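User: two proteins, same treatment. go.

Assistant:
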Amino acid sequence: QWKQLENLYFREKKFAVEVHDPRRISVSRRTFGQSGLVVQTWYANTSLIKSIWVMAISQHQFYLDRKQSKAKIPSARSLDDIAMDLTEMGTPKVSKLVTLEAKNQLIMASNGSLISSGSQDSEVSEEQKKEKIMELKKKEKLLQEKLLQKVEELKKICLREAELTGKMPKEYPLSAGEEPPQVRRRVGTAFKLDDNLLPSEEDPTLQDLESNFVIHQKLVEAAKKLASEPDLCKNVKKKRKQEYADAVKKLQEIENSINEYRIKCGKKPTQKSTLALPGKRIP
């Protein structure tokens, strides 16, 4: 029925009719607050689809005009009154057709809809528009609250990074005129390699392996200090313990590579990681 019509439109070679069916609940809510929207589609060449659409628009307009006329016609009228009304309605009808034609010029050749054609949408009331606006405002409020929550989470992450590196990251969100907070770097996570600690080998390959071992040894020490910090929550402490265990494993793999290369070159293997980490277990 025409009163169930939501929209008529065509796109290229597609003609569609959207109607409300109270007996059917749509899976996806295509419009705000409406769940019974059903879409029927047909396909043909563009010129035929547009012609069908124009006829459908005209038929819908006829339905609206007829409905409006019925509301205005009184129950009992004389023939003279009817003749007078028909005479008076002649001029407005012509101007209305001219206006409709002018509006149709704005419709592109490849697409159009019921609303763009200038026809009245009998189902869209002011109350429905208000409901849609209210729902949009609710969604906007929820999005703003979620955005504020994410901003606070980003601030905490940036502060944590600043404690570890001593430098506030540029991603830290600042309001207009706000200065970034001063953060003291957490002691115990920084280390510096002394040139004397790096082994000196004649073999360049062995020299690279030994240097890599020394660097990862310092990384293991830093990971151990982070995992041993007091007042850590359970999840963070568990994560740092795992990072420390991974660092120790990586250090052992580097030592194994060194020993394999030393044996290949006719040299004795070493046990550096065992000697360097006597108490590697974190309570």
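Protein 2:
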Amino acid sequence: MRARVSWTLVLAAFLALPPFQRKRVDEMGFGQVFRIERMRVDPALTQALRSRWDTKASAFVFPWGHMIPSLEDVSRITGLIVYGRAVSGYTYPCYHDLARRLLDLPVERRSSLVPRVALQESLGLFEAGKNAGETEDEYLERLARVSRRELASEPVPQADLDLRCFLVLFLGRLLFATRCDAVNCRFLPLLADLGEVGGYAWGAAFIAHQFDGLSASERQTSTSGFYPFLQVWAYLHLPALRRGELTRPGLVPIARRWDSLRDTRHLADQLEHLQEALDSYPYLDVVWQPYLGEGDEGQPWLVQARPYFGRSVW
């Protein structure tokens, strides 16, 4: 549930941005993510995949062998950039002064976390709860309408603060989400110069974050991060599980084509069924190369990404 709410909040903030700000987000390489439909969360599928993750091998272990999400999967499914400078840098012991200067938001002394509510309110997301009887589309439209009133409509200095707050929300609550309610400021130093943000390989950092989340404590059943990625990865490579529905063929990035099939069974029953299905999954039904025949039309980010396909994220 939290993943779906976070997706709606971030999408509402993006839709509230004026056109010149959305253009900047697109130039940074994040625009394709916001063209993806709000996919239904499938916790049973992600839990079943997580149970097959081998921490030592950093790969899924199935009866037919090892499988691992690749940089090509990230590029084609999400449209994120997998080439450029590494998303790396110095970790500050305290982000108080940096957050004040770059976000105009409070961060506790000796902390790297910005309060989630303060961050959302900086973007005009004051009442983020869903009203009774409100549809998902009505909820999204209301959030975007209220948020739009608080954001700078012209390229003035306040607009840079707005954009950084949005990027921190996007990176901390969606792309690199964790189970913490507060939002980590670890990416804030990379956002100081907004003109440099698009030069980083955010897609490569994203898949590394996925691996890190999958390798977390075995007592954790869910995974952190942008949930549509693993779901669509399973739809493409393990179609016989029948967890996804191809509703919009031909759209790019590929995540735009799919939705999660509704399963009304109890989560425990779904998980048991998926575990059994994976144990007996026919080898010949595994799709090892799902992108054969896929063109590059409408996907300019693939041109520079191709030399990285087939290479390890490490």
